[in-house]
Amino acid sequence: RNLIILTSILLTIILSTSYAIFVVNTNEYKASELLVSNLLYGIQIDNQNTTTVTTSETKVVTIKITSLNGIDSKYSLEYRITSGNDKAKVYYLKDITPQGEIEEYNKNTHTKEIKVVIETDNEVTVSFNVSGGYKGKEEVGTTQNYIAVTTKGYEVTVNVPNGHADKSPKQVEENGTVTFTVTAEEGYTTEGMIVEGDSCTIEGDTVKVETVTQDIECTAILAEDKLKTILVADFYKKMKEQYSDIIDTKRTSFNGFYTTASAYIEDGDFIESEIVGTTDLKDKVYYYSGAVTNNWVSFAGFYWRIIRTNEDGSLRLLYAGLASDEGKTGTQYIGSIRTYNSSYNDTMYVGFKYGSTGTLSNNRQNTNNSLILGPDKDTHDSGSEVTLNGWYNQYLMGNQDTNGKNWDKYISRTAVYCNDRATSTTYNATSTMYYAAYDRLERRGRPSFKCGVNYQGKLIEGTQSEADKFSGANDKAKLTNPIGLMTADEVTYAGGCYGSFSRSSQPYYYTNAYGGKRCRLCLVVDYDTL
């Protein structure tokens, strides 16, 4: 009497029956089938006899019931939970109901396709069964221990033109509630988000739909991050006012220590950026050089120096501490670590993050943090060595602005910290070899903001290694906290020079707000924080 299909989360849906099963083949149909009270039916799931459902996944399956009878009849789809969480929800979607009449074989409606949703939060096995009956007779009964699929469900879709929802569409049973987490693309924000659509509401960065009684489509409209796109133009104007004679020119000489207060333009990395109202800034970087005194900013309770603009429309800042101790020990510079990595006998240790030895590809696997970066969960302790992650967690994740938001909110996730591991000589894991930066700076005197290029600005490896472009958004070189160090190229643009030094005058990066030396920590912030 029963055609049973087992639905197993983390297992499979298995087609089976309690009576004799055989397969009928015609030019139009192939299915497992069963004689039920002298009535013959076939059943399939998603055009096959098995399917897999992952734990905690809401699974939608299409169950196809086919009448192979020579007369019209009735059908009823049922289920029971055979193992696991007995609170799993099973409901159907759309207008084809799990119970009704079905015409004889070869008529237009001799098949019924029913979309069924299985919703659970852990492993579960669900058994489906189809019962049949003669048209005009009593209603089709329910098989013992089975439950008829009678609960209806709906689909809710959230469209986000300048972002995305965590998953869309989502299924929900009748009168249920469903939520979507919205993420904005670069240049947009979920703050001030509005939503269009019946029953669609907003809670923070989520779209919520309650008491669902029909299919619903919502559209989340994100606000453009205008402060960022407008202020970058304002920043450029200020730089141009200060250095009108050179701001739109490129510095050409890097053969010595440079202390003249200046600002220049340079080609940025291979990132296409669009900055509203400033098309002349596209793919360009503006940076300070020499002993400048007008690149100070205050952010998160500390002083910083502006290093340059970034390709994603943010500012790169250099930590400069406080103007006095102000009772905060260890805030004039970050950390007492003297080595980048404690080990030095292998090329993999030049990585901000690194993998394993043997090949450059292995080095770039980025599974280990450098000593100066520190563990992801590091916390600040003035009595121990301070790492970049530890300082970030202490002062940017742990402190808030006047609006009650962590300072971390303002940090760009897309700005790149280049850890250039392209080589200018043949790779050798344990013997002398040279990286691209050495060729650019020591031999040629030509820095670059591009990652992985030679002194002519051309890619050494043909394509950029994404594993060298660290950021908070790059899965191949992902930072838990978007924080880094000045590169040798950035130091050169700022006025430094390989093998040169001056005691009488130094570029701006040399001293902090308190007048002492400090580590060259970099941070990138959006313009609305300045």
Categorize the overall geometry: elongated
Number of strand elements: 32
Strand content: 25-35%
Derived from helix and strand composition plus strand pairing, the structural class reads mainly beta
Low-confidence region ranges:
1-35, 271-282, 380-384, 517-530
SS element count, helices: 5
Largest sheet, strands/sense/barrel: 7 strands, antiparallel
Q: Kindly, what is the distance between the CA atoms of the first and last residues, rounded to a whole number of angstroms? A: 74 Å
Radius of gyration: 32 Å
Mean pLDDT: 77
Oligomeric category: single chain
Q: If you had to describe this structure to a student in words, what would you say it looks like?
A:
With 530 residues, the protein is mainly β. The chain is 9% helix and 33% strand. The strands form 8 sheets. Strands 1, 2, 6, 8, 10, 12 and 13 form a 7-stranded antiparallel β-sheet that branches. The longest helix is centred in the middle third of the chain and has 17 residues, at 226-242. It is elongated, with a radius of gyration of 32 Å. It starts with a strand and ends in a 5-residue tail after the last strand. The model is unreliable at 1-35, 271-282, 380-384 and 517-530 (pLDDT under 50).
Give the SSE map:
Blueprint: E1 3-8, E2 13-17, E3 22-25, E4 30-36, E5 39-45, E6 50-51, E7 59-67, E8 73-84, E9 89-93, E10 99-102, E11 111-119, E12 124-134, E13 147-148, E14 153-159, E15 163-165, E16 170-173, E17 178-184, E18 188-196, E19 200-203, E20 206-209, E21 216-224, H1 226-242, E22 262-267, E23 284-289, E24 296-299, E25 302-309, E26 315-321, E27 353-354, H2 360-363, E28 368-369, H3 388-397, E29 417-418, H4 436-443, E30 469-470, E31 483-485, H5 488-494, E32 521-525
Parallel strand pairs: 14-21
Antiparallel strand pairs: 1-2, 1-12, 2-6, 3-4, 4-5, 5-7, 7-11, 8-10, 8-12, 8-13, 9-11, 14-16, 15-17, 17-20, 18-21, 19-20, 22-23, 24-25, 25-26, 26-32, 27-28, 29-30, 31-32
